[in-house]
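Reply to dn_fold:

You asked what the input looked like. This is it:
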Amino acid sequence: MDFGLSEEQSMLQGLARRYTQEELLPLEKEYLRVDRLPDDVMMHLELKARSLGLWALTTAREVGGAGVGQIGSCLVREETARAVLGAMQGDGIGGDPSPILYSCTEAQKERFFYPVIRGEKKAGFAQTEPNVGSDPATLEMRATRVGDTYVLDGVKTFIGGAGKEDFYTVLVRTNPANKGRGGVSCIVVEQGTPGFKVGRIIGMMAGEDPAELVFEDCIVPVENRIGEEGGGFILGQRFLGIGRLRFGPSCVGIAERALGMAVSYSKQRVTFGRPIADRQAIQWMLADSATEIHAARLMTYHAAAKADRGEDFRQEASIVKLFASEMVNRVVDRAVQVHGAVGLSKDLPLEKMYRQVRHKRIGEGTAEIQHFIIARNVLRD
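and this is what came back:
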């Protein structure tokens, strides 16, 4: 396997690095003590990313995207994740329609697919329910067919984006007689639809707070269903596959920043007449971190390469999600330890990074679920 970057990929990586250094890092100190960026700051960063071409990265050029593939997306996300603002704004990168939206009809694409690419609309994904998390086959929220409409009733929770999306792809049970995967469908619900509202905003450790979505006699036309009735489970798995892969570059970027800070501080901090970088206890922490980052990066780009070739990468995505999310927690924890008390202070970004990365082991399927998926696939082979 060739691990070198093409000239185009190197230029893309450099562009993302400059965006991080010139746009994200200068604002970092100002927003270290808050967990949500003001809307005007988010808009400024989004417009800047779009003007640089760091937008709709994996979407084909023919429909308005950058067309750089999953490897290109990883290169950009790894760079932007080095700044805590990158994580606060979803790595600063948007415009790629959810894999679910590729199954839209042409009429649906005009309403939902192309506006996302153009930055005119933001899309959300709603799967989790109060009683259903990692097993979407057991979804309880109902969508009852009434003529040419569906009537939705239920609650979705821990939905990212703080309820600001223009529309959501919602997984619902359209066949109550089928209690498994085949009873689940995917329906688009737009903001402003009668019977739909954003409920409680859920305060979290760090990052943008997720929301509850409440549906009470919410009437949606059948034309808003994506794919066949009963095909929603498969569509949802497509979303999760890409989502899990994208954890890789984000975790690697954050970990690289934390390791760099630990290395720099260990050379400056003197105890008993010597820099702590001379102490074997510190050296081993740095060595372990460098080793784990290297492994996470390689497995991330391997999975991205399979995705770009159109191969099945779901097993690799789960491996990336599991290893990278646990790796970044260990690396950031070591960096805090190397810094001692100052690492816990809000004067440095490590404190915020420490809270941000804890989410990585839960979002898009917990570490335990990834263990289950990986083991199931291994045993199946």
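The radius of gyration is 21 Å.
Hope that clears it up.
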